[in-house]
UniProtKB/TrEMBL annotation:
GO terms for molecular function: ATP binding; metal ion binding; nucleotidyltransferase activity. Its cofactor is Mg(2+). This is Selenoprotein O. It comes from the Eukaryota. It comes from Fregetta grallaria. Keywords: ATP-binding, Magnesium, Metal-binding, Nucleotide-binding, Nucleotidyltransferase, Transferase. Belongs to the SELO family. InterPro entries: SelO.
Length: 171
């Protein structure tokens, strides 16, 4: 456990300077940051039609950067079933499933972090993970609103985005 703690402290110290090393909640802050940044990264992928192709846990970065580009692709037209990986017969990594795979990978990260968390922190970490979908959706919506030139907050914007994505399936 001490080796694991040293490794995580090193990662935080080297790559997450905004997290204070003397903070007893540093692992919780770390997890919250990774959850938020992963939601942001996948929303960015979706906003440009990028499909990773192999989004398994070893191809996700704690720094929320895209790594292991091998089989990836960009959609020519919107298709939530687009899979650039020809060996993915089950379509697990289809572009429309990327956000869910991100959630799965984050749940595995939380499982690895749990031995370092006290009971209260475990509960808070679970709540952070539960908020991933909302964080992803908010960022996804912001990016699409920007692409469409929609300014301000209008409740109908979300319906318009969903409608345009659905209509593009018919084209």
């Amino acid at each position: 456990l001490s080796c694991y703690r040293r490794l995580l402290d090193f990662i935080i110290q080297e790559h997450f300077p905004s997290i204070a090393m003397n903070d007893s909640n540093r692992y919780l802050e770390f997890f919250s940051t990774v959850v938020s940044e992963t939601a942001n990264l996948i929303a960015l992928w979706m906003s440009v039609g990028f499909a990773h192709g192999v989004c398994n846990t070893d191809n996700f970065s704690l720094l929320s950067i895209t790594i292991d580009y091998g089989p990836f692709g960009f959609m020519d037209s919107y298709d939530p079933n687009f899979v650039p990986n020809t060996s993915d017969d089950e379509r697990r990594y289809k572009i429309g499933n990327q956000a869910n795979v991100g959630l799965f990978n984050l749940s595995k990260l939380l499982q690895a972090l749990k031995p370092l968390l006290d009971p209260r922190q475990k509960q808070l970490a679970s709540q952070i993970l539960e908020g991933y979908g909302e964080r992803y959706y908010i960022r996804f919506t912001e990016l699409f609103k920007t692409k469409l030139g929609l300014l301000g907050e209008n409740e109908d914007d979300n319906y318009l985005i969903a409608f345009l994505l659905k209509v593009s399936l018919l084209c």
